[in-house]
Amino acid sequence: MGPLPETHKVRSPEEVRFEAFLRGKKLKLTGERLAILAAIFQRDSHFDAETLHAELRNEGGDISRATVYRSLDLLVQAGLVRKNSLGASHANYEAARGDEHHDHLICLECNTVLEFFKPDLEELQERICTGFGYKLIHHSLQIFGLCPACKDKTDEGTIRNRVAQLHT
């Protein structure tokens, strides 16, 4: 058996999974959807649809805003992307890598998002569910506060107003 032709490309597990999901919905894995998927899985941070669209356009992609939004919805349905509010008035997204779980600390002043994982916190949430007779399926913990850089220089009244407007 000779070498593989140069056109053969090793596909990522996310690409294979997305294509299978799309086939089940009788949709195609288009070049635009592939570009969106690749851009998401190259990121290490949360993003919003507008930022992703701008980045794709800056890289020379001719992808419409509507295609980005529709593709994000499909990626969320496929379980490849998580959608979060993180207190903002619009959705934030992140790549869903494996079964990793983490929670969020969100600064109300500079909007920094710190991801963290604490096994003892996970155990406590399990015990709470068990104590009330619940079966834990999913949880999301978001803690809003002020990061070390902002905690001493932020007006308390302004922060109270922001807290009152949170969309969690």
What can you tell me about this protein's structure?
With 168 residues, this protein is of the alpha+beta class. It has two domains: 100 residues, Arc Repressor Mutant, subunit A, CATH 1.10.10; 68 residues, Dna Ligase, domain 1 (2-Layer Sandwich). Helices cover 40% and strands 12% of the residues. The chain has six helices and five strands. The protein has a three-stranded mixed sheet with strand order 4-3-5, with no helix packed on it. The chain has a two-stranded antiparallel sheet with strand order 1-2. The N and C termini lie far apart (57 Å).
Describe the structure using short key phrases.
two-stranded antiparallel ribbon, Dna Ligase, domain 1, 168 residues, 40% helix, 3-stranded mixed sheet, 6 helices, Arc Repressor Mutant, subunit A, alpha+beta
Instruction: Please count the helical segments.
Output: 6
Write the H/E string, N to C: HHHHEEEEHEH
CATH topology-level name of the largest domain: Arc Repressor Mutant, subunit A
- Please state the oligomeric state of the protein chains shown: single chain
CATH superfamily of the largest domain, by name, is: Winged helix-like DNA-binding domain superfamily/Winged helix DNA-binding domain
Q: For the terminal residues, how far apart are their CA atoms?
A: 57 Å
CATH class label of the largest domain: Mainly Alpha
The coarse overall form would be globular
Helix content: 40-55%
Nearest-integer average pLDDT: 86
Q: What is the makeup of the main sheet?
A: 3 strands, mixed
The CATH architecture of the largest domain comes to Orthogonal Bundle
Task: Please identify the structural class as seen in this structure.
Answer: alpha+beta
Q: What percentage of the residues does DSSP assign to strands (E)?
A: 5-15%
- Spatial strand arrangement across the major sheet: 4-3-5
**Tally of DSSP β-strands:** 5
> Which spans of ≥5 residues are poorly predicted at pLDDT below 50?
none
